[in-house]
Design brief:
The protein is an alpha/beta fold and 156 residues long. The chain has a domain at 73-152: Ribosomal Protein L15, Chain: K, domain 2. The chain is built from seven helices and seven strands; from the N terminus they run ααβααββαβββαβα. Strands 2-3-5-7 form a four-stranded mixed sheet. It has a three-stranded parallel sheet with strand order 1-4-6. It is elongated and about 85 Å long.
């Protein structure tokens, strides 16, 4: 047989203090030494160790800016190591379209040992130099967009 156990709050209905003991115990903030972090002053020995240990680290701090876009990056070293899996081979080049892979920017850490033909939104100048020095090519999509915008603006 199933026992129908009522919730604790419904069992307290009709009682004067809802199992809070005496009436005086659940009054305002004075009962607990103030609201929030108050009461940790000269005689607040019960709270002092907590403040000394962690300081003011709890709660919600700061905010997250909803307009910032997280930029996904890859280094030249990782690009060189993962070249075969990221792209296709045509002739001597390994063609990699990073804009379709969801990678926005190429950083310059590492060395390039293979001739790569990379299409990417943004690339650091040192990374571009390393790819070209290894016999590769770089197609920068962000740069072409800038050129289109510049050509549309009227000159005086």
């Amino acid at each position: 047989m199933v026992n129908n156990i009522r919730s604790k709050s419904s069992r307290h209905r009709g009682t004067k203090t809802h199992s809070g003991g005496a009436m005086k115990k659940r009054r305002g903030a004075g009962n607990r030494g103030g609201r929030g972090n108050a009461g940790s002053g000269k005689r607040g020995d019960a709270r002092k160790p907590l403040f000394q240990k962690i300081g003011r680290k709890w709660g919600r701090n700061g905010f997250k800016n909803p307009t910032t876009k997280k930029v996904s990056t890859i280094t030249v070293k990782d690009l060189d190591l993962k070249a075969e899996s990221l792209g296709t081979t045509e002739g001597k080049f390994i063609i990699i379209d990073l804009s379709k892979k969801g990678i926005d920017k190429v950083l310059a850490t590492g060395k390039v040992t293979k001739p790569l033909k990379v299409t990417v939104n943004v690339i650091v100048s040192r990374a571009k130099e390393k790819i070209v020095a290894a016999g590769g090519q770089v197609i920068e999509l962000q740069e072409t967009k800038k050129e289109e915008v510049d050509s549309e603006q009227p000159t005086d």
